[in-house]
Amino acid sequence: MPMVGNEDFDGWLVVVIVSWIGVDGSFDFDGIVMLIGIVFDAVVLVVHSGAIGVYRWMICRKGHTAIFAVELVLCAISNHLASQSQIKPPSAGRFTHILSVGIGGSALGPQFVAEALAPDNPPLKIRFIDNTDPAGIDHQIAQLGAELASTLVIVVSKSGGTPETRNGLLEVQKAFREAGLDFSKQGVAITQENSLLDNTARIEGWLARFPMFDWVGGRTSEMSAVGLLAAALQGIDIKEMLAGAALMDDANRNNVVRNNPAALLALCWYWASDGVGSKDMVVLPYKDSLLLFSRYLQQLVMESLGKEFDLDGNRVNQGLTVYGNKGSTDQHAYIQQLREGVHNFFVTFIEVLRDRPPGHDWELEPGVTCGDYLFGMLQGTRSALYSNERESITVTVQEVTPRSVGALVALYERAVGIYAALVNVNAYHQPGVEAGKKAAGEVLALQKRVLAVLNEASCKEPVEPLTLEEVSERCHAPEDIEMIYKIIAHMAANDRALIAEGSCGSPRSIKVFLGECNVDQLYA
Ligand SMILES: O=P(O)(O)OC[C@H]1O[C@](O)(CO)[C@@H](O)[C@@H]1O
User: Fold this and answer.
1) What is the Rg, in whole angstroms, of the alpha carbon atoms belonging to the chain?
2) What span, in angstroms and rounded, lies between the C-alpha atoms of 358 and 511?
3) CA–CA distances in Å: residue 323 to residues 394, 426, 482
4) N or C: more exposed end of the chain, with fewer CB within 10 A?
């Protein structure tokens, strides 16, 4: 079990300990050395392509335009914070809450960092709307209750046009109207200049707008305004986060691969999954505050690496599946299968050495603390997996601080870039997501046609309930009959269509109509 690592970066520690089972129990370091050229060519290429969130690398290069962009955001955030005492909601003494509206890369980083680093009693408590689930949105708004009046709403969307985020915004604005509040006095946008969201915020005169730059990817945006504004408002030291990320970036520029954490990590992934994603990455932080790290990594890794084609246009269907929750909790859920079942994974243990802040520990039995149990569970699971030839990587941090979290974010962002270069895919686009978005748009368009047909039949005297076949024929979409059934079942469950005969459990039995005739034909 070789051990390689980078130690003691200015008071904090990141060690990558790699345990693996080669055929002969060893690792081929010559193999790594041969890969350095590829890795570093790739890193340079990636940086030069500008298609990234590797802006910290750019910061070091004085004179690069990116430095101005990044400093602009930091400056805007600092100015905002400096003047925070003067910025008050119209109907409350001060802001007490943040409601962050965004999805994917515009939510996962801030969620992870809030869970990892927000103090127990932050100056502003954060909540998230990260879906277009009406009940989920209602829940967040209901939980805020009267404190909506002292809530800062941060709407985050790089593109400024993501439907879920737009819907969240519209729902929140409705809640503000119903509470008699002026949303524009409490709304902040983080988005690309001139996006739909940017224009909306500008025209409606929102409290503030922070820019997001084209070269900052959504899933690599935690260290941009996306992550930093919310973090700063929660009282998290964002300069320390940036310092940790910068230190990690420095380390990752080291062209001795065994001293380069991101290259090591990427090579471990490559080795463990045969460079084709043959094994899943199970991420197990042994620390409650890092619970959301695996969810954050799931997008970072899977959206970046899960690609149909490589850069030469070959169909490769690449990717690395990521899942995980936290240890030792997961030992009582699925570790049984990891130890003894199908061997289709490798584990990443995230180990945190500091159990509690200094002076707070106590021994719950002679010589043993609660944290010692957590430590023992991690080490025991790691050894048990190893003894059954299950590979694992251990990333160790001294403690969970803004600095180490910044370093972790940078470590994985860079590792993803390097791995993408190794397997020759573009880590910085997501063409596959478009297919689902397009199909969702088509479903909504079909729903409008269904509504128009049902409306017309419901306006007849007497009302004409229709079978599914009749609806699909009148929609000129017989091939979409299954989707039409789904649409009608959904509308019926929400009292927006009525079942005259039959039941949704037997699609061919149903006859459907609308409860009322809409003479204005709004659905057409
Ligand atoms: O920040 P936006 O543009 O709203 O996008 C949110 C998320 O949607 C995606 O584009 C995928 O649909 C992600 O890459 C992104 O993080």
Assistant:
1) 26
2) 69
3) 16, 22, 32
4) C
* Distance from C-alpha of 147 to C-alpha of 168, rounded to nearest angstrom: 18
Supply the pTM of this predicted model: 0.85
Tokens 């049984």 belong to which residue?
A: 336
CB of residue 392 inside a 6 A radius of ligand 1: no
Q: 3-class DSSP state for residue 16?
A: strand
What ipTM score was computed for the predicted complex, to two decimals?
Answer: 0.98
Decide if 72 contacts 190 (C-beta within 8 A): no
What CA–CA distances, in Å, run from 487 to 232, 454, 483, 491, 520? Answer: 43, 12, 6, 6, 22
Q: Are the beta carbons of 414 and 252 closer than 8 angstroms?
A: yes
C-alpha neighbours within 13 Å on the C-beta side of residue 82:
6
- DSSP per-residue string spanning 198-215: HHHHHHHT-SEEEE--TT
Domain 55-238 has CATH 3.40.50.10490: yes
**pLDDT the model gives residue 435:** 87
Residue numbers of the chain with a pLDDT score lower than 70:
1-86, 519-524
> For residues 464 and 512, what is the distance between their CA atoms, to the nearest angstrom?
8
* The two structure tokens encoding residue 41: 């060519």
Pairing of strands 187-191, 151-157: parallel
Name the nearest CA neighbour of 330 among 280, 296, 374, 393. Answer: 374
Domain with CATH 1.10.10.10 in the chain: 432-522
Domain 4-52+240-429 in CATH: superfamily? Glucose-6-phosphate isomerase like protein; domain 1 (3.40.50.10490)
pLDDT of residue 83: 57
What number of CA atoms fall less than 13 Å from residue 44's CA on the CB side?
Answer: 7
Distance 103 CA to ligand 1 centre (A): 7
Q: What span, in angstroms and rounded, lies between the C-alpha atoms of 121 and 143? A: 17
Q: Which of 128, 154, 158 to probe ligand 1 with, by most ligand atoms within 8 A of CB?
A: 158
Q: How far apart are CA 521 and CA 524, in angstroms?
A: 6
pLDDT in tens, 273-285: 999 999 999 999 9
φ, ψ (nearest 5 deg) of residue 282 = -95, 120
Residues in the chain: 524
Fold of 432-522: Arc Repressor Mutant, subunit A (1.10.10)
Structure tokens at 267: 């090579």
Identify which of 314, 291, 295, 293 has the alpha carbon closest to the alpha carbon of residue 303.
295
* 314, two tokens: 């070959």
What pLDDT is recorded for position 62?
Answer: 28
Instruction: Please state, in angstroms and rounded to a whole number, the distance separating the CA atoms of residues 321 and 272.
Output: 12
Q: Which of 433, 434, 437, 438 to mutate to test the pocket of ligand 1 (most atoms within 8 A of CB)?
A: 433
* CA–CA dist 443, 483 (Å, integer): 8
CATH 3.40.50.10490 region(s) of the chain? Answer: 4-52+240-429, 55-238
> How many angstroms is it from 297 CA to the middle of ligand 1?
15
